[in-house]
Specification:
With about 120 residues, this protein is an all-alpha fold. The protein contains 6 helices and no strands. It has one domain. The chain starts with a helix and ends with a helix. The mean pLDDT is about 95.
Length: about 120
């Protein structure tokens, strides 16, 4: 995996660690600032659901970080492509069902990462 691909994968992993923190630990505080389309009375009611979503984002981050730790270049690339594909699918689904903004925050970086592998830039 080349340096640019590693940087993109690392950025996306960091983004998903941030989402994990936001959804699992800061849902009723910082979550209100980030998710303005949710009414204030819903944050406490959806706290457990958000924590579950945060956990899944943590799994995506863990997989991307794992891909950066693998020494075999082919395996590293394949694991990164798998987890970037998962991020892309989650981003597209989130954009279709929750907020169009999710496409730009989650899916576009994954697309850039996948394009980086395809174009070997």
């Amino acid at each position: 995996m080349n340096l640019l691909s590693q940087l993109i994968v690392g950025f996306i992993a960091f983004l998903h660690i941030y989402i994990l923190w936001l959804e699992m630990f800061a849902w009723t505080t910082s979550g209100r600032i980030v998710f303005k389309n949710i009414s204030d009375d819903q944050f406490e009611k959806t706290k457990v659901m958000a924590a579950n979503q945060g956990l899944y984002n943590g799994f995506l981050a863990a997989g991307l970080i794992w891909s950066l730790c693998i020494t075999d270049p082919d395996w590293s690339k394949n694991i990164a492509i798998f987890f970037l594909s998962c991020v892309l699918i989650a981003g597209v689904y989130g954009a279709m069902t929750a907020s169009k903004r999710i496409f730009f925050v989650q899916a576009v970086p994954a697309i850039l990462g996948l394009l980086g592998f395809m174009l070997q830039i």
